[in-house]
Design brief:
single chain, about 160 residues, alpha/beta, Rossmann fold, six-stranded mixed sheet, two-stranded antiparallel sheet, about 25% helix
Length: about 160
């Protein structure tokens, strides 16, 4: 059984028009999993709805606590891309669990989003990787502590 924790981020952003600010909406993860023909073997829990730029150390503590409380040994976490690497770092002391963080550069609600691909890739990664903390984005897996977001090129890379 895989536990999936949602925290918000771009993957769940909603934009109303060019003049409005974004909101973190209801997660589309259940819908994305159904589209990927994944109907069982997971438990979905919403932790928060935050842009990762607004995430605090207290929020990271909530994530670490939720990971520690679940009996699952395989955990997926949706997360905004701007501070995903910091949250992965905060989880590094968790033992005997495979934790994979992923998100999207474009909201899942947009036609050209990378959300579906990143979800499928993270799903495969969490099932195959040994215990540890990882980021799975855009077809690559990075270990916590050895990754950074390249804002200019809109991708993750080894630190």
């Amino acid at each position: 059984m895989i536990t999936i924790l949602t925290t918000g981020g771009t993957i769940d952003k909603v934009y109303f028009d060019a003049k409005s600010e974004f909101e973190i909406g209801d997660t589309l993860l259940q819908e994305l999993l159904t589209e990927a023909n994944i109907h069982e073997g997971y438990r979905l829990l919403e932790l928060m709805r935050k842009d990762s730029l607004d995430m605090t150390e207290d929020d990271r503590d909530v994530i670490v606590e939720a990971v520690g409380e679940t009996n699952a040994t395989r955990i997926l976490i949706t997360h905004g891309t701007d501070t995903m690497a910091q949250t992965a770092e905060a989880l590094k002391d968790v033992r005997d669990k495979t934790i994979v963080l992923f998100g999207a550069m474009q909201p899942a609600r947009m036609r050209r989003s990378d959300a579906v691909f990143n979800l499928g890739f993270a799903w495969a990664a969490v099932g195959l990787l040994p215990p540890g903390v990882y980021i799975a984005m855009n077809g690559e897996v990075f270990e916590a502590g050895a990754v950074r977001k390249n804002v200019k090129d809109k991708r993750f890379e080894r630190a």
